[in-house]
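Closing statement on the DP6 sub-project.
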Amino acid sequence: MSNWVRAHTNIALIKYWGKENENVIIPMNNSLSLTLDAFYTETNVTFNENLTTDELYLDNQIQDFDSLLKVKTVLDLVRKKAGIKTKARVDSFNYVPTAAGLASSASGLAALAGSASLAAGLNLSQKELSTLARRGSGSACRSIYGGFAEWQKGHSHETSFAVPVDEANWDIGMLFIIVNDKQKDVSSRDGMSRTVKTSPFYQGWLDSLGQDLSAMKEAIAKQDSHKVGEIAERNALKMHATTLGATPPFTYWSPESMRAMDAVRKLRKQGYSAHFTMDAGPNVKIICKQSELEEIKAHLLNDFTESQLISAKPGPGLQKIEKPDLLK
Ligand code: ADP
Ligand code: DP6
Ligand code: CO
């Protein structure tokens, strides 16, 4: 029997950038995201008495111990809950570039939490799944839900999880400009840790978050996609500003990212409602009306290639599936 589970990536509109507790992953602040249909992970966990260590096969390639660490954290928690000691084989397919700032850790670790708990015979609530996924990668706790989700920071392992905010059943979408799908130099985990420890701008980032979050929730409640984009763009710029103040300083931006951001500003001059956000990587995501996705894409084809531009709509939460897309 297989336990294939699919989880979609999510992109934060109010970013998670820093941990209060690095061991159990308690964030410094609440964050809020939109789950998307275009990018996802499918994972199947099999507990097997014959295994002496956990194994992770990502896109049919066996992974080294380092990339197994996030996975082991989730598997250990599942084993503890289920009262078993059996090692597991994890098969996973990413329909999203891995470690490129496109949130593969969110869909990857959420799918793992879902499949591992099923394979161990646990029947977890969404809240428990969110808590479990969070231990693998913080952003993964939001991918349990479709639409908009808020990760409420909490203060302990049990009290830090995401909750659904809005199904996003309205005119909002995201257009991805892929400028580089290769693995980044500084992982999200290392980048945020360095920033918290060394950047004098970090406190400024924290100080303005409360305002951004409440304004964002109000904009979502009003289904005001323009306002959502405006707040998300300024929130992302503040997050990226903190990395320049770190020691040693770093940035996720490349010249191509700047070109993409300029293209978004140009779209606004032409009268479109379009704003950008960026994560721990050089790729740029445009927040716009779902009904204008194709029109906006057509404009961007002047500056970028078809394969660089990916339209996304709000996506669903965790799903049990029969078979992975790649094996159909
Ligand atoms: P991203 O921007 O893609 O989320 P991160 O630096 O946050 O980048 O995380 C990338 C890491 O997440 C990978 O190096 C790998 O360890 C882990 N990861 C990504 N996809 C999966 C998956 N499907 N299953 C298990 N782990 C995964
Ligand atoms: C910039 O969740 O990938 O995308 O918890 O260390 O695994 P770990 O980091 P991760 O960080 C995501 C950072 C971000 C913003 C966000 O998704 O909220
Ligand atoms: Co990540």
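The chain has two domains: 5-169, 173-312. With this model delivered, the sub-project is considered complete and its resources will be redirected to Aim 3.
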